[in-house]
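testing teh design pipeline on a random one, pls ignore if ur not involved
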C-alpha cells in the first residue's frame, strides 16, 4: 500500500465508561461482569444517535438496525431468564409472534426511548434472578423440556450479546463512521 492509498484520517472510535470484567474472580462474578460488560457495550454502540438513525437499516438486503437489535436483546433477556430459567408465570413474548417471528427486526413501531427503558428493566429483572439463584439451579427449555443451568443461560446470553455487538459495529459504522473497540 502506498502513502496515497492510506486514509487521511482514522474513523472515530466509540468510547465510554464501563468496567472491565475482573481477571481473577470466581465463576459467578466472572459471568455476571462479562454479561454486564456486553450490555453496557451495546448501550454505548447506540449512544448519541437519533431515533431515526437507530431505526435505520443500513446493510441491505438485511433488515438489521440498532433498534431491531435492541428489541431482539430485550426479548432474549425476557425469554431466557424470565420465561425459561425462572419460569415466571404470565411473561408476555416481547416483539415476537408465531405469525411474525422476526417482529423484533421487522416492526420498528414505538418509541426508541421506551424500548431502551424496557430493555433496562428486563436487564434489571435478569440481574435479580441471577443474584437470587444458585449457579446449579436449572430452568427448562419450553420447546423440549431440556433442563439447563444458570451458568448455561448466562453463557448463552454472553454469546448472544457478543454476536450482536459485531452486528452493531457494522450498523453503527454505516450510519456515521463510528467504530467500536
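output:
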Amino acid at each position: 500500500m502506498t502513502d496515497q492509498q492510506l486514509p487521511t484520517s482514522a474513523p472515530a472510535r466509540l468510547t465510554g465508561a464501563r468496567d472491565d470484567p475482573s481477571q481473577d474472580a470466581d465463576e459467578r462474578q466472572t459471568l455476571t461482569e462479562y454479561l454486564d460488560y456486553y450490555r453496557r457495550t451495546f448501550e454505548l454502540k447506540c449512544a448519541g444517535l437519533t431515533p431515526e438513525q437507530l431505526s435505520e437499516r443500513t446493510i441491505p438486503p438485511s433488515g438489521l438496525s440498532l433498534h431491531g437489535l435492541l428489541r431482539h436483546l430485550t426479548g432474549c433477556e425476557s425469554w431466557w431468564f424470565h420465561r425459561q430459567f425462572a419460569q415466571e408465570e404470565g411473561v408476555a413474548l416481547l416483539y415476537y409472534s408465531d405469525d411474525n417471528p422476526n417482529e423484533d427486526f421487522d416492526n420498528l413501531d414505538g418509541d426508541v426511548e421506551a424500548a431502551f427503558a424496557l430493555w433496562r428493566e428486563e436487564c434489571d429483572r435478569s440481574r435479580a434472578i441471577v443474584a437470587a439463584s444458585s449457579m446449579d439451579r436449572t430452568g427448562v427449555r419450553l420447546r423440549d423440556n431440556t433442563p439447563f443451568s444458570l451458568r448455561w443461560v448466562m453463557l448463552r446470553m454472553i454469546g448472544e450479546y457478543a454476536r450482536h455487538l459485531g452486528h452493531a459495529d457494522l450498523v453503527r459504522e454505516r450510519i456515521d463512521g463510528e467504530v467500536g473497540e
